[in-house]
Each structure stands twice: as C-alpha cells, then as structure tokens.
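Troubleshooting entry. Yesterday's outputs looked truncated, so today I'm pasting the complete records for two proteins to confirm everything comes through intact. If either block looks cut off, that's the bug. Protein one:
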Amino acid sequence: MSPFLVFALYGAVTVGLAWLLAGHMHRVFTGRRVWSSPLIAPVERAFLSAAGVTAGRGQTWSGYAMAVLVFNLVGFLLLYAILRLQGMLPWNPQGIGPMAPDLAFNTAISFVTNTNWQAYSGEVQLSYLSQMVGLTVQNFVSAATGMAVAVAIVRGFAAKGDGRLGNFWVDATRAVLYILLPLSILAAVVLIWQGVPQSLSAYVRATTLEGAGQVIAQGPAAAQIAIKQLGTNGGGFFGVNSAHPLENPTILSNMIQSIYLLLIPVAFCFLFGRMVGDRRQGWAIFAAMGVLFVAGLLLMNAPEQAGNPALAQATGITGPNMEGKEVRFGATLSVLWAEATTAASNGSVNAMHDSFMPLSGLVMMLNMQVGEVIFGGVGSGLYGMLLYVVLAVFLAGLMVGRTPEYLGKKIEGREVTLSVLAFLSMPLGILVFGALSVVIPAGLAAVQDAGPHGLSEVLYAYSSATGNNGSAFGGFGAAAPFHTTLQGIAMILGRYSIIVPMLAVAGSLALKSPVPATAGTFPTHGLLFVLLLVITVLILGALTFFPALVLGPIAEHVSMLGGQTF
C-alpha cells in the first residue's frame, strides 16, 4: 500500500473519531449528562464528597494552579517512595531491588509531568506493583492534570468577566472517570486479544531451538500500554517500548496504538471551538496544527523511503532505511509513529529514533522544540498552542496598528509578558542544559557517537525532557546521575513553567468582558490567521534552535552526502 494512502487513511480515522470524542468531552466538562452518567456519576459524587470538594465551587487561576502543584507534588512523593521501597513491597515475583535514588527521582518526575522519560528498562528494574500502582496510576492522573488545565484555560478565554476557571479536582476526576478510564479499558481488552500479556505470573523460562536458555518477560502490560498511548504518556512496560513484540505484536495493535496516540489531542481542538461558542476557532487551530503535522510527516517520509546513500554506495543495495525498524511495521508505519509521537508529546516508539536518517531526526527534534504544540500532549498541546495564539494576535495588532483582540478580548501587556515567559522555558531547558551537558565531563561521557550525531543525541535528550516527550536517541547514556538529575529539573521546568503562566493568562482574560467585533477586528478563524499562526510557531519556535540544529542533524546530513563518517 502506498505510504500516502496509509497516512490519509490514518488521518481520516483519527480526525473522525476525535470529532466524535470532542462532543462527549464537551458534555463531560460542562457537567451535562452523558451515556455513562448513571453508572459513573455516583462514583464521581462519592470521590468528591470524600475529598470535601463542592462541584459548583469555582477557583481563581491562582487557586487552580496551587491545586495542580500540590496534587502533583504528592504524586511525586508517593511514586518516589514506591520506587525506592519496591524490594520490600508485594507483587515482585522476580525479587527486583530498589531503584537508585537519582534514577527514582528522575522516573518519578518523569511520570508525574507526563513525560515518561525512561532511563531504565522496565522488565529488569521495576516490580509489577511499581508498574501498576506507581507508573500506571500516574499515567492516568498526569494526563488528567493536562486535560483539566487545558479546560480551565479555555474557560478563561471564553469567560464573561467572572474570573473563575472551574475546579481542578472536579475537572481531573471527570477526565479520569468519563474519558480516560473507559477508553483505556476498551483498548486494553483489544490489546489482550491481539497478544499483549496481562498477568501477575513470574517470567517464563524457555529453551530456544539452539538449546540455549531464555527468560521471557511478561506482566500486567496491556493495562499500562492502553493509557500510555491514550494519555500521551509514552512510557512502555518493556525497555524497547512498542517495538517489543509483546507490547505491540500485530499491525492491528500498532494502528490502534497510533490512533490512540493522537485521539485526545486532536479532540481538544474541536472541544475548544465548542467551549468558546465558535467552532470555526477550533477548526482554525486544528488547521494550523495539521499543516505542521503533515509537513513534518512528508519531510520525514522522503529520506526514510530513499534510504541511506552511503549504504547504497558501499553495498549496491537500495531501498528504504530499515536500520532500527521492525520488519513487521516497515518504514511507512515507523515514520507515521515517529512523527505522531514527537508531535503529540507521547514519546513511545515502535522503531529506534537513533537509527533514523539525519533529516528525520531534525523533524522529530523540531516537533519537540516548538513546545509540543503540533497537537501535543492531552491538554498541554492546546494550551501550548494558545500561547502562540496570544503572540500571533499581538504581532497582528502591531502590523495593523490596532490593539490585538482574541475572542472579543483585548490582549494587553500582562498576557503577552506571561506568554513570553512561558515560551522561554523551552530554550532555557534545551539550549542551556544541553550546553552544560557538552562542557561538563560527567555530561559528555553519556554521548555515544562522535561528530554531529553526538550533538544530536544531547539536543534530542533535552528537547525531549523539556518538551515532556520522553523519547530518546537510544545511544545516549541517560542513566548517568548527571543526566537523571539535570533532566529531572528540565522536565519540571518544561511542565510547570508553562502551566502556571498560561493559567495566569486565562485568569486575566476571565476578568475581561468580551466586546462585539467591529469592521476593524482581525478575524481569527480564517486562512490568513492560520497562516499567521503557523509562521509564528516557525519563527519563534524553530528559528530559536536553528544554530544548534545546523551543528547537529543538518551537519550530519551534509557529511553523509559527502561520504564522510565519524
């Protein structure tokens, strides 16, 4: 089948399902009755009542932000304790000991921030209890945090002067009970049918055809894989993630996981239009994200289908680049997954990104460096793109000499300043922390390759950590204490230095009453605005990192064409 036909079919199915899901999400987050209400509503009321939360009591932006931070801090402490004590806890048939302090810090931060960066191998270093009670639970609540924050920010853009953004505890509870849990159960059942294990039994010892012994890892994998895809978490049960035959055994399981990867992020575009009362606004944001996504997909597909010219010259063999890819998926499905997972802040992999062609690596890094806004994570992609929307309408206002407005509300100095502060977290985490990694010997020791690809390993690692993505170039020594600590800090920076300012922007806008559009109002639902938004993302996001990318993947590509190796 033609790669373009595969891409088109995938896009049509994903967008269609996301459009349907957006209607359900709109009813859930506006407190309306849905088909599952008779079953789930009593559970929701019981949870909120036990927590002392009143569903109708809204919070200001500062109250909402404080609830997010406290909830995530408690989650970090609990997960850190589980990882450090897993050797003494139950559901550990392999007798796996405690995780090292620096690695436990990195892993706990990683899953709480929805990054799921994995500097460990799950089947070797984690017990079943750590996988289920620790990581899987955080996969649900970190995704729910992103969804709740996005909904609160949208309320701020749509509010009519009351200053309230909703209630974090209500939003997060509804995200889990009505959206994440039902869809995860559905996917887990299908994955079990396809051959993904879901068991508490010990690992299987087998004898190979050559007579050698082999240990086959298993465990409660299907449940974690379902939510790691749906919640754009990405942390796999096994060390090689969805390239593992027990984590992703068939073409059908691969397509289901690929669709789940983008399902909620795409749905958030349509949810935005519904919540602000103008569906054209949601379609405009979807169009901007879609243009960037398709461009990245095509730019990545071309070099992977063409293959490595150096290899062709040396061996006379031509064809797609299959290094680091699973034969059962091939170049096409590997490219589709790689583009989707780096655009969507997911970070799961079904092929080794370190083995992709240099220009493919460039695309993957750019997807993360612009702030994971090309659909992005569940919720985080939307509020990240709204950051660029604020800056885009500000630039538009400067060009036409008018006070910038969005959805009838004036964008003033406070909103622009907060948006710029949020944007600066990406270059700080990627360029500053990356620079430290190549000048400090403890950081440089983790680099596997010489030449430009070695720099690409560092750039990719800190783009992934700061962008809360979680994927990696496989040769990078991420388990070194220097990087487990510094990347943990980068993950905190990339998550909360955007959440808090964007909630403040929403709080500021929520106090403003919308004014009617006039003949001089710049429309934010048409083709011109979509083009302006795409250009803003490229200029502010991509060009910030262009000098570093020239020294990394671009230099590697030029060297490859010239026949130079390192």
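Protein two, checking that the full record survives here as well:
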Amino acid sequence: MKKIIPYVFILLFFAQCSSVKKHNEQLTDLIRVDKLKSDVDFTYKKLQHLHPNLYWYIAKKDLDYKFDSLKSTITEPLTPLAFYKKLSPVVSAVRQGHTFLYPPEKLMTKKETKALLKKGTGPLSQFDFDFIDDKLYVIKNKSYNKTIKAGTEVVAVNGTKPADLIQEYNQYYSSDGYNSTLKSRSSGRRFSSFFSTQNGIKDSLTYNFKFNDSLKVITIRRLKEDTTKKRVKKIPIKLTAVEKAKSKAIKKKKRVNGYDSVSKNYSRNIHFEEKDSSVAVIKIRGFKNGDFRTFYKESFRKIEINKSKILVLDLRNNGGGRLSEIVNLYSYLSDSAFVFLDKSEVVSKSSLFEGAYFNGGSFAVKTIKTIFSPLLYSYLALTVHKDKDGKNSYATQTKHNKVNKNSFKGKIYVLINGVSFSASSIISSNLKGSKRATFVGEETGGAYNGTVAGFMPIIKLPNSDLKIRIGLMLMAAPYKTDSIGRGIFPDVPISPTLQDRIKGNDPEMDWILKDIK
C-alpha cells in the first residue's frame, strides 16, 4: 500500500497539469457557430429551469428577444472571451447580482502559482484605485516608486484608458434591480480584474499618470518581497506568562473576528468612540469567516458593561455572506420578537435537487450523493410547498425568533453604500422596515424587496466551457417598498469625495458623531 501512494500522487499531479494545459489551450481556440448557439440555448434553459422570478425586472418577451437576437449576431466562430462578451450582457439583463457569467481565465498549476508568488506583487496590486467622475485615481500607493502621490489620475495602462475598459466590463454584471451605486462604488476596485481578464497577468505595466496637470509615464514592475529576514534562522525565545497570554488572545481574536491574511483585516471588529464609551461601533466587512456567535455575544456584553447609549453598525463594502449570521446579529438589534424572512420562492423541488444537491463534486462525491438522494428528495417533498398563488416555496428562517437577552436597547445608526449587498441588504431591509435604525451613506447595491441567492450552483456550459452562477431562492425580508428594484435608501445621503478618500476622512461617521452631540 505504501508503494502505491506515491504513484497515486504522481498520477494526480500529471492529471492536473494535463487538465490545466487543455483548458488554457482552449482559451485561444475558435468555437464553431452551431456550438456557440447551442450554449446560448443551454444558458436560457438553465435560467428558466432554476431561477425563480426570472422575469422580475425584465419581461419574458424582452428576454426572449435578447436571447434570440444574440443568436442571430453569432455568424462566425468565436474565442471563449469573445463569446463571454456577447453572452454576459444578456445574462446581466436579468438584473440579479448573484446570477452572472464568469469570464474565461488562464489557469495555473500549483507549481506555476508558487513561482508567480515568488516573483512578487503584481504591478496592479501595488495600488488601491477608486473610480470617481469617470476617472480612475490612485488612492493608496504601495509600490516601490514613492513619487506617485495619492490622488494621481491614471490616464492609461499599457495604452488602455481605464474609463473605456470599465464602461465595457460594467455591461457584464449587474446589481440587484435598477440601482447604479454598486457599479459606481466598486468599479475602481474591479479595474484590476477587468484589466487582467482582458490582457492576462503581466509582470510589468506602463502607466500614464496625471497629477496637477503634470503628465508622467512610469513603468511599474513586480515588487519582490524582501526575504532576508525570512532566511535568518529564528532563535526560539521562551515567552513569559504575560506574552503567552497575549499570543493566545491574538489567536482567539483572529479565530473569532475572522482574520484575512491577504488584506490583513478582520471581518468584524468593535471599538468605542468618546471617552465615556457611550458610542459603540461594530464594523462588519463580510458575514463569512470567523466565529460570529462568540463575537456578537462578547461584543454586546461589552456594550452592556460600558453602558453605551448609541450603536453604529458599519455595513459599508459588505458584500454579504451567511444567512445564519445576520439572523443571529438581528436578534441583538431588534426591539421585539421577529420573523426574519418570508418563505423563499423556488422554481420547484427538482430545481433545488438538481441545482443545489447534484451540482459540483467529484465522481466519488456524486456517487455518494446518489445513494442518499432518496432521503433528500423525501425531505424536499415535505418542505417545498405550492402556495395559493401557484408558486413553490421553501421555508428557511421563517420561524418566530425571540430577541437576545443582551439585545441593544439604545439608538442605532447604520452606515451603508453601493457595495452593501446580499446579506447586508437583507438585514438592512429588516432594520429599515422595523424603523429600528437611522441609515447614513448611499443606496445599497442589494434590493430592499429581496434577492435571488441561497443555493448558487456554478454550471459549466458544454461547448465554450464558460461557467454561469445561478441563484435558486428568492429571499426577502417581510418588509417591502414600492420602489421596485431599488436598494435601501439612506435617511441621510452622504458620499465621500475624492479628497475624503485620499485623506482617509469619513464624512458619514463624522455626521453621526455630530448628530449625537
């Protein structure tokens, strides 16, 4: 048995290399017209079969026309990227942010990935960008060239004008509904991925910069990390009891708060403003990693001990995450017993069965799923019901919840912007509808009246190998608005300016502190 194991690893290694090589070769291959049209039909059939309320923001006849028109424009073979650029605007016309087409990307083996990381930080990752008034600006310079100041306009990158690239690629994805804040707020951050999709990963880039009417052409190369410190042999140091306790506390914080080693930020954090700790601020970057139950239990206990009268919940740039987390958080914020969600609409029992259960996984995993499939289908038969209006619904987070014993009783402010999406919009809908909080900032990217998410299988198109992600459940808070397809609007609209971003000012938080005083 021990002799067989190395051969298994060798076979897996070569299988992976072969798969990556085959995938990358296909990126430049031309796909026949009949196969492209077949993938268009496949995409629409999958959307109709899996997506509940497909025609929420676009009439069926209009979407039918878009798919038919698309096929009529395909008159010659296309590469996967060219096909992506034709198909993705039609998918985004559904106006559901969780449903989109993934762009084709070059894959790398583990060896290639390791070699690339060893070469250092790429020329795009050395800057933080923001897109304001149709111009791309450097907000933070992390490169080796310190002459590039924050506030410098990026006129071109390798001859590409940022505004042209952003305008093109903004057609290929959507927010929920009709709002524009998600794209305006996230375009600067997405520029790097747009550029890499269009041009591939580069070791150096030529930037045309503009600062105070002064133009400069600067080439930025990969920034190799200084590894001299890593090569120095570390001498074990015996820690004192205090140092051990401090190290243990840091490890716990990383586990509970959810530490991201790439951004070097915590998913959630709490701090107190004012000398008397009367204002508590909970910043949540995402509802994804970390031990959220422990974090909220400890945080609201601290708030109670400090006798804070005001709570600021910062959901800016929070793209969403776990439903279970926002229900838990809301139990600390609500002032009465609550039902968090309406019953979730689904296309059918089979849409959950096929889309959520059987999608993805290796042959071995699918075999195991097949064995247990009768049990799951029996469960779905009991839990998916047809309502009086003829729609199928799946009950999740529809029970009556009690408020937590340590729930916050004081005044709540919520900070939101265009990248407040998905789960952060759902909890905002509940807080807004129950009139529990004052909202400050921008309209959210996620819709007030719900989103199509829940289970979100990724399905490969048979001929082009493009992948589409489709939400299977229409999830909505009990509260609704007449503004169809719009997000949660702030009670106090404030958008940071370019100078605010450069200087690190926070006009939304400043307004709240001023309002409190």
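Both blocks look complete. Sanity check on protein two: The CA atoms of residues 251 and 259 lie 10 Å apart.
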